[in-house]
Amino acid sequence: MSKKKSRAKVKNYSWFTTFSFLIRGLEALGASAYSTASYVIIVNVFPDNAGAVRIGGYGLPFYVIGLVIILIAPLNVYLLPSSEKHAMETKSGSFTKLMKLTPVVVTCFIIVVIAMTWSFLDPTLEPHLRKFKLSPGNIGLIFLLLSAMYGIFSPAWGWVTDRMNNYWWLMTLGLFCNSASLLLLGPSSILFFLEDSILLNIIALSTLGISVAMSLMPTYQAILDSALDGGFVDNLGTHSVIAGLWSSVYSLGEVLGPILGGTLLEHYGFSLTSTVFCCLNLTMAFLGTLYFFSRDKADNTCKLYDSQVGYQLYKPKNSEIITGPRIEKGENGKWTAKLK
Q1: Which of 22, 181, 261, 333 has its CA 20 to 30 Å from the CA of residue 9?
Q2: Residue 321 dihedral angles phi and psi, to the nearest 5°
Q3: Can you identify the CATH homologous superfamily of domain 92-298?
Q4: Do the Cβ atoms of 208 and 178 come closer than 8 Å?
């Protein structure tokens, strides 16, 4: 009988760890480039509407996803529109200038907390579900449930964001809902009367997917509007800077989430881990509510629209409008202002 050849695998622990970090680093490099470019392209194409283990073993999901990405990459060259017409636009504001805007910094902290909430489940949820003796396929379906609810409700929250002026409450309300879902997911020791069960985990993950979509969808538009309020020009360069910032802070949260979650799980268990992330969301929700509420209350400026560079802010006490039609039926008029 001929011996069946086994596939080459890295069995040495040190080499496995080294290659794991190397692969994840290359993946992060490619994903960040793809993600940043996709946000910029989407905003330019749609400027008015910015938001298998059991079958093939452990390696099959990686092979399938890698093959799909390789097949899709060449199609982008032919399908995506050209941006040559934007080549002569004026330069955008600097990254450091963007980070000096307080609402941008607050929104970035919100993004980090949301990304941590999403990513801490990667190393912790499967160990938490082991006691239910589920098959790998069923565990995969539970993970899919979280992503599916996020994917289903993201367009809905994006639609709401595009049609609202003050959408900050979506972010803070989503953070509050995240907190409630995480309390159920443990379940937290605070809810001592609840018994951990598959049904409770399914309900918690479903609501978490919905609330994460609610809190995350307005963040890009919030940073963009804050940048325009701060004097940035509405062009491709500005969208590039904002997309890079958004991707960076989200990636930071994706790094911090598994590190903190894995450490807490190892020493204190899943119940306390979910409670800690609940407190993070709750704290950020309160801070965000206080900031945005106080900002709206103190904001006595009026927004004057310009079809070329977006809107600029002029304080009524220091300036007056001398020409320009009124804005009617959502159409942007030309405005000029003169200091008194």
Answers
A1: 261
A2: -85, 125
A3: MFS general substrate transporter like domains (1.20.1250.20)
A4: yes
Query: Rounded CA gap, 175 and 110, in Å?
Result: 8
Both structure tokens of 331: 């159409």
* Whole-prediction pTM: 0.68
303 strand-pairing partners: 313
Task: State the distance between the two ends of the chain, measured CA to CA, in whole angstroms.
Answer: 96
Residue 304: C-alpha distances to residues 165, 220, 221, 229, 335 (Å): 14, 22, 18, 11, 7
> What is the phi/psi pair of residue 239, to 5°?
-65, -35
Classified as helix, coil or strand, 183 is: helix
Give Cα separations from 45 to 83, 222, 280 (angstroms): 10, 19, 36
User: CB 210: neighbour CB atoms within 10 A?
Assistant: 22
Using DSSP, state whether 302 is helix, strand or coil.
Answer: strand
Tell me the C-alpha distance between 82 and 298, whole Å: 42
Enter the tokens of residue 19: 């290659």
So where are the chain's domains?
Answer: 52-80, 92-298, 302-339
- pLDDT (average), residues 297-320: 43
pLDDT in tens, 173-210: 999 999 999 999 988 888 888 888 999 999 999 999 99
The 3-state DSSP class for residue 223 equals helix
